Amino acid sequence: MATTTSGTRRRVGKPRGSYAKTDEKRRAILDAALEVFAQSGYRSGSIRDIAERVGMSEAGLLHHFPNKSTLLAAVLERRDDRAVQFIPLDENFGGRSTVNGLLELASYNASEPGVVELYCTLSAEGTSPDHPAHQYFIDRYEWSRGMIERAFTIIQAEGDLRPGVTPASAAARTLAMMDGLQVQWLLDRDVLDMTEELRNFFRTIVSYEL
Amino acid sequence: MATTTSGTRRRVGKPRGSYAKTDEKRRAILDAALEVFAQSGYRSGSIRDIAERVGMSEAGLLHHFPNKSTLLAAVLERRDDRAVQFIPLDENFGGRSTVNGLLELASYNASEPGVVELYCTLSAEGTSPDHPAHQYFIDRYEWSRGMIERAFTIIQAEGDLRPGVTPASAAARTLAMMDGLQVQWLLDRDVLDMTEELRNFFRTIVSYEL
């Protein structure tokens, strides 16, 4: 880890202070980009608007992220890093732990409406084959379905999946439920509790106490 | 009905032929608007692009729909008229009939990817309070949840709702499931069958054979 950092330093050849500043600026740009993409979508969201929010020129911003799609990729990657805190990538993470992790993720999402809005808007836009995040979303859903399917397969082996439920179908429906609840919650935050409804959903899939 | 038609004719004072032509143009504009809004969203979708698709000038289009939000409202209204074929508005429509109607609606949607894309993109964009369709979506979800809740209440009275399931929660989750399945289906049409997964979902909610 230390080697990588010093390696990077050597390659770019700037003193430490500049790095801290650069990192800070990058973070500020990504925060602003998240807000703009969440509100206006990727297509309508403008680099100029993002630059203005952090008090930079467009050229200044493009020094950090050479184009809009690089910026989008960085926003998505940063958000995924946070989500993975709740669902470790470990293959042997376990069935019940994954279900619990998804419930914790839903609670965390409820504290970050901007991020939920970003995902909701971008995943809808991203269904178009010509959208720069199209492949990202295809891969992300495939990966997530696989991960959740493995969890339900473990739960099934433990005898805790309800009769007639298959792990693959339960996985696709879990993602659908999480996505769909977000739309209703964004429209009216008092109308439903995302975590509670996801728990209600899981109760119809698994037979252990939840 | 005849009175209304002749009344309208007198008011505008044009012969029958012009009417048919006007209707045809309006329909062509709405088809083009649906495509453009579905692909680019409402915010990025341009009147000019819509006009070009039907071989009109922007001014010509604005003669039929005075602005972009009127056009959006007309596109949404037209789509709702079609959806209501599957779920009659009659309060006494019945529990099982509503569930069957929603399954038929899911099948119909699978034959109209453009319409699904429109709803998916617009409902995501429309979660922003400043979006022209924001109130439309709030009202639409409230109405739909109420209608589905009534259906599940009837099913419950018939003893066919699974233990622990409440009609209100089941209604919110039904809409969430339909919306969420659409995102995954739009990303990859071979990955899941929306009607089949909706049926799998209903099977965990109701106890009668489905």
Give structural notes:
The structure is a homodimer of 210-residue chains. In chain A, helix 2 (16-44) crosses helix 3. Chain A contains 10 helices and no strands. The first copy, chain A, starts with a helix and ends in a 7-residue tail after the last helix. The first copy, chain A, is elongated and about 60 Å long. By secondary structure, chain A is mainly alpha-helical. Helix content of chain A is 73%, strand content 0%. Chain A has 2 domains: 14-74, Arc Repressor Mutant, subunit A; 84-203, Tetracycline Repressor, domain 2 (Orthogonal Bundle), CATH 1.10.357. At the A-B interface, helix 2, helix 7, helix 8, helix 9 and helix 10 of A face helix 2, helix 7, helix 8, helix 9 and helix 10 of B. Chains A, B: GO terms for molecular function: DNA binding. Chains A, B: Residues 1-21 are annotated as: Disordered.
Write the layout of secondary structure elements.
Two copies of one chain form a homodimer.
Chain A: H1 2-12, H2 16-44, H3 47-53, H4 58-64, H5 68-83, H6 95-110, H7 113-125, H8 134-157, H9 167-187, H10 194-203
Helix pairs in contact in A: 2-3, 2-5, 2-7, 6-8, 6-10, 7-9, 8-9, 9-10
